[in-house]
């Protein structure tokens, strides 16, 4: 089975982002990057499926040539090769432009399945996976916490407000991965050495223009200064009074 | 004449609050609101949507077991009405179906929006980037503005009249099909839906000590238990309860953080709560910077006392 795992390079979760002088974009100087948290789960699950049924894991990313460090990490953790669709503007692409570009790469690879993180932790849209599935006419289950694939069919579980939902589908399919689906492994020295010999192909792509336009980018309004009510259990009556009579939430 | 299509989710004939909030948001910025609704009990729920701002309700008979088929049904309603926007509440189901509808409409998607306004003839949404560390005001050059709206952020639609109700047949060309829902315990509220969230962190010392968090949540009645990333990673609590950048974003009326220091990735997930209370041993913990009210001290003394006080208030009511 050919499994594509789509990954995105994003600012680290510790990042304190700053708005550029133009007021509509992110100041990228000084930002540190990482693989989006949930994308690591997608890579791990893809490798696990390959280990159980055989096949190939191809990591596909729309991103900058600078991202090769994060791509090598995927190879060290068991992916067979990487296709990096070169795009220095990857961070400002909207969900649709990203999905159209990735759908083309997935088709070019002849994949049976594509795994995505449930959301990229920079734009938080959680849109690209299901958009790709829709563009390709593939089945899709999002936020998956359990997945079984065999004989061209799959069963996936996801958690919603109602409880745990079970879906059945036929391949090809897109799955977006929630925490709990798989625990990313450590690369280990052997993996890191092996990764150096695995192919990392950079391909040129033309990405469609954004529909989404940023009118203004700003830091969120600061919360009004709060106050320490007191210390220990003795402060509870004063807190109750504040919640009932001042904040009026009780 | 601008038209917005709002997909309404319902449970047993009662529309979700998130859907009523989305109707309210749409009502405020357009001339005609067309609601879509499906599933068992849809006909019952449809009759009340006029009062919440819908001018027309399309009941899609038989839909709801396949998200890809539902997306086709919804995209067809948007096209048929020449709508300029498609909105759905940012629930689990809403966030699942919206990108598919957007793709079918050759449009991009704006997820988890916290504001929707008119600027001239165009719509502008505000949405968080990097889990709310920045806010982006955005518009689209695409054919339809597709967006999901954050819960507990918009006022539910009110004061409307009767809506015209029509019926449509669902698409039966399924790719993925829902086979089963293992319902969670009826009294267990999801952390992203609850009006009150009581969260615990590493400061509680061990998993068993979450009892004081659960007891406080139970005293409120309408509260859910939340957790920091640290305690979820240690296996004390399930991931479904995690609040933060790699968990759920919540915006309840009241958020109580117990033994949570307030790492930036946690703050990103709860900072837009209406009122924040922090209980922590360390007076310098970053959580006190965003809290409206703080108590410094031992959670094992403070929280049981707070639980009793809340019980007393609830007993009065």
From TrEMBL, chain A:
Family listed: Belongs to the ETF beta-subunit/FixA family.
InterPro entries in the cross-refs: ETF_a/b_N, ETF_b, ETF_beta_N, Rossmann-like_a/b/a_fold
Membrane-traversing stretches: none
Gene from which this protein is expressed: etfB
GO MF term set: electron transfer activity
Keyword Electron transport attributed: yes
Organism: Rohdeia mirabilis
Segments forming domain Electron transfer flavoprotein alpha/beta-subunit N-terminal: 23-209
The entry's keywords: Electron transport, Transport
Keyword match Endoplasmic reticulum: no
UniProt protein name: Electron transfer flavoprotein subunit beta
TrEMBL record, chain B:
A molecular-function term among this protein's GO annotations: flavin adenine dinucleotide binding
Biological process (GO), any one: fatty acid beta-oxidation using acyl-CoA dehydrogenase
Gene3D superfamilies (alphabetical): HUPs, TPP-binding domain
Coiled coil ranges: none
SUPFAM superfamilies named among the record's database cross-references: Adenine nucleotide alpha hydrolases-like, DHS-like NAD/FAD-binding domain
Domain of life: Bacteria
SMART domains in the record: ETF
Cofactor(s) needed by this chain: FAD
Residues bound to FAD: 202, 228-229, 242-246, 259-266, 280
Segments forming domain Electron transfer flavoprotein alpha/beta-subunit N-terminal: 4-182
UniProt KW keywords: Electron transport, FAD, Flavoprotein, Transport
Record's cofactor remark: Binds 1 FAD per dimer.
InterPro entries: DHS-like_NAD/FAD-binding_dom, ETF_a/b_N, ETF_a/FixB, ETF_alpha_N, ETF_asu_C, ETF_asu_C_CS, Rossmann-like_a/b/a_fold
Protein family (similarity comment): Belongs to the ETF alpha-subunit/FixB family.
Functional summary from the UniProt entry: The electron transfer flavoprotein serves as a specific electron acceptor for other dehydrogenases. It transfers the electrons to the main respiratory chain via ETF-ubiquinone oxidoreductase (ETF dehydrogenase).
Identification of the protein by name: Electron transfer flavoprotein subunit alpha
Organism from which the protein derives: Rohdeia mirabilis
């Amino acid at each position: 089975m050919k499994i594509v795992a789509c990954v995105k390079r994003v600012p680290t979760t510790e990042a304190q982002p700053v708005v550029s002088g133009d007021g509509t974009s992110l100041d990228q100087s000084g930002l540190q990057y990482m693989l989006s948290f949930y994308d690591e789960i997608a890579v791990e699950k893809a490798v696990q499926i390959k280990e159980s049924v055989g096949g190939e894991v191809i990591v596909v990313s729309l991103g900058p040539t600078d991202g090769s460090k994060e791509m090598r990490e995927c190879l060290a953790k068991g992916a067979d090769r990487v296709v990096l669709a070169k795009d220095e503007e990857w961070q400002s692409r909207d969900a649709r432009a990203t999905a159209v570009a990735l759908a083309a790469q997935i088709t070019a690879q002849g994949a049976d399945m594509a795994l995505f993180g449930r959301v990229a932790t920079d734009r938080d849209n959680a849109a690209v996976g299901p958009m790709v599935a829709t563009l390709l006419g593939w089945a899709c289950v999002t936020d998956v916490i359990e997945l079984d694939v065999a004989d061209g069919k799959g069963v996936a579980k996801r958690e919603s407000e109602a409880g745990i939902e079970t879906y059945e589908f036929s391949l090809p399919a897109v799955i977006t991965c929630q925490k709990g689906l798989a625990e990313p492994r450590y690369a280990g020295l052997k993996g890191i050495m092996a990764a150096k010999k695995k192919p990392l192909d950079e391909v040129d792509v033309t990405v469609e223009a954004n529909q989404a336009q940023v009118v203004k980018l700003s830091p969120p309004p600061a919360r009004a200064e709060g106050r320490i009510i007191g210390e220990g259990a003795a402060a509870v009556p004063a807190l109750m009074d504040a919640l009932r009579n001042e904040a009026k939430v009780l | 004449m601008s038209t917005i299509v709002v997909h309404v989710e319902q449970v047993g004939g009662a529309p979700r609050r998130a859907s009523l909030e989305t109707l309210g948001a749409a009502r405020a910025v357009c001339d005609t609101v067309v609601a879509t609704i499906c599933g068992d009990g849809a006909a019952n729920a449809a009759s009340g949507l006029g009062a919440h701002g819908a001018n027309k309700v399309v009941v899609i008979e038989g839909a709801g077991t396949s998200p890809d088929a539902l997306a086709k049904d919804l995209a067809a309603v948007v096209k048929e009405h020449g709508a300029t926007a498609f909105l759905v509440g940012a629930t689990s189901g809403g966030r699942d179906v919206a990108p598919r509808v957007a793709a079918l409409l050759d449009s991009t998607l704006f997820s988890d929006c916290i504001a929707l306004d008119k600027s001239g003839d165009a719509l502008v949404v505000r949405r968080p980037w990097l889990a709310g560390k920045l806010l982006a005001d955005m518009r689209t050059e695409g054919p339809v503005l597709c967006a999901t709206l954050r819960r507990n952020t918009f006022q539910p639609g009110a004061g409307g009249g009767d809506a015209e109700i029509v019926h449509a047949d669902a698409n039966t060309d399924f790719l993925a099909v829902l086979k089963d829902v293992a319902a969670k315990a009826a009294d267990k509220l999801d952390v992203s839906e609850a009006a009150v969230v009581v969260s615990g962190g590493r400061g509680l010392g061990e998993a068993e000590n979450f009892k004081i968090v659960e007891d406080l949540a139970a005293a409120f009645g309408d509260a859910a238990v939340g957790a920091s990333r640290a305690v979820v990673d240690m296996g004390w609590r399930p991931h479904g309860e995690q609040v933060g950048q790699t968990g759920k974003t919540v915006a309840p009326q009241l958020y109580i953080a117990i033994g949570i220091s307030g790492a930036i990735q946690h703050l990103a997930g709860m900072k837009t709560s209406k009122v924040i209370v922090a209980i922590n041993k360390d007076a310098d913990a970053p959580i006190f910077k965003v809290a409206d009210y703080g108590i410094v001290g031992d959670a094992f003394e403070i929280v049981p006392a707070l639980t009793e006080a809340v019980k007393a208030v609830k007993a009065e009511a």
